[in-house]
Amino acid sequence: MPDSISEDAPRRSWLVVGGGVMGLKIARDLIARGQDVTIAEAAPVMGGLTSAWQLGDIVWDRFYHVTLLSDSKLRDVLSEIGLESEIDWVETKTGFYADGKLLSMSNTAEFLKFPPLSMFERLRLGGTIFYASKIKSWRRLEKLSVEKWLRRWSGNGAFEKVWLPLLKAKLGDAYKQTSAAFIWAHTARMYKARRSGAKKEMFGYVPGGYARILDQWVNVLTEQGLTVRTSSPVIQVATANDGPGLDVTFGNGGTQRFDNVVSTIASPLISKSCDELTSVEKQKLDAIRYLGVVCASMLLKEPISPYYVTNITDTWVPLTAVIEMSTIVNSETQLGGNHLVYLPKYLPDDHEGLNETDDDYKEKCLSTLEKMYDHFSRDNVLDFKVARAKYVAALATIDYSTRLPPIVTSVPGFYALNSAHILEGNLNVNETITLGETKLADEVWPDFVARVKTPHPVANLQQA
Ligand SMILES: Cc1cc2nc3c(=O)[nH]c(=O)nc-3n(C[C@H](O)[C@H](O)[C@H](O)COP(=O)(O)OP(=O)(O)OC[C@H]3O[C@@H](n4cnc5c(N)ncnc54)[C@H](O)[C@@H]3O)c2cc1C
């Protein structure tokens, strides 16, 4: 049982929409407050972006995931479910593919030799990263475009040769609307990783990957009373007209009443799922732009790279990065003696590239790898699968925080709490669950407590 949070509120029924890590964390915290909780997940399995699939003979995450030493909230969850002590921490190396060459960029000495830049440009680039890591408040950065800010601090040379290709690889043309808070959030996370790892970049994973974490977490919560409904997309949430509560319609046509609903799904999907929201709320939800991803998982006989991440600045390469997961995840004990590589391409949510067929993406990936790595051969590939997600991370556009939709909506008992509210970091599991914990405690719970103290008018009539 999680530490119960003593709050003077009666037990009520809650539906949490979305069975990703945000939904699980909110469910956990509501159970700790003595509430009766159900999670509805549209997919047949729990986990959302962290869910796993079969690749060759192994089961591993559909999208690559590592944990940082500084991911304290995530490590708390892992402790609670008995897995934290099993994390395997590994020192990582970072590479760059620039001007047709693979370069190591894992420490300051290597950074100071980075060939595409002059010494002056390298120093300005290094200074920008250091300066970004020292900035405490993102609010000022949110008002400036990332391009303007980087040109100012790194200069045009480093911007054109390094930042621009990286921004385009990660954001496509959406970089033009992105604020400087985006680069601050990325730098801060990577700096934290190094600080907590005594200057070395240490990444960790739980043996068995997220499949094991999710299994264990769901089991623990189920023992504490959680009800889980998989393959249960929520289609509509509406105020009940014959008593208190919200009537929730599921994809199979069934309806169930809950006292409260917390929706953790992407903002445009929240907008669609509740017709009663005001037009202003709907506009705000619909206006949030997301970054999506197409990401191939490739099981290989031999590794292709010594770097966990290879960042790419050559614009002909149609990939955001090459991620050699088996530099972290033990090949012998976890991957059946094989090697696992992810090939992601991030794209704005309305980009047609998100609908590219698996075969086309596969051909693009393999022919690119043949050009990038002399030793790469298609015969090395044991299995190749393509995962996609349209809604991965909300784009940090200019003045983003001033345009966020409310978490406590105008529909009593309906709360819209998703990762789009992350303002102080980039999207990752630790930020997601930290946000879930804080916003549940500061906004959702106080509103719920205030509402239960004010009886519903229809309930009053029925009692009279
Ligand atoms: C390529 C990639 C790499 C990543 N790498 C890392 C990493 O290294 N480290 C790290 O910490 N984080 C990483 N992340 C981020 C991490 O995966 C996310 O922070 C986290 O999974 C977000 O969880 P969530 O619950 O907010 O969203 P989601 O996981 O998207 O969950 C939302 C859930 O809602 C469900 N849903 C949607 N509509 C409905 C509906 N109508 N009814 C019911 N259910 C619905 C979806 O099926 C989904 O399961 C990565 C993500 C990606 C894509």
Describe this entry's structure for a reader.
This protein is of the alpha/beta class and 464 residues long. The chain folds into three domains: 152 residues, 3-Layer(bba) Sandwich (FAD/NAD(P)-binding domain); 159 residues, Protoporphyrinogen oxidase, mitochondrial, domain 2 (Polyamine Oxidase, Chain A, domain 2, Alpha-Beta Complex), CATH 3.90.660.20; 90 residues, no CATH class. Helices cover 35% and strands 23% of the residues. The protein is built from 13 helices and 20 strands. The strands form five sheets. It has a seven-stranded mixed sheet. Strand 16 and strand 17 form a beta hairpin. The C terminus is likely disordered. The structure holds flavin-adenine dinucleotide (FAD). Flavin-adenine dinucleotide (FAD) binds next to helix 1, strand 15, strand 19 and helix 12. It comes from Rubripirellula reticaptiva. InterPro entries: Amino_oxidase, FAD/NAD-bd_sf, Zeta_carotene_desat/Oxidored. This is Amine oxidase domain-containing protein.
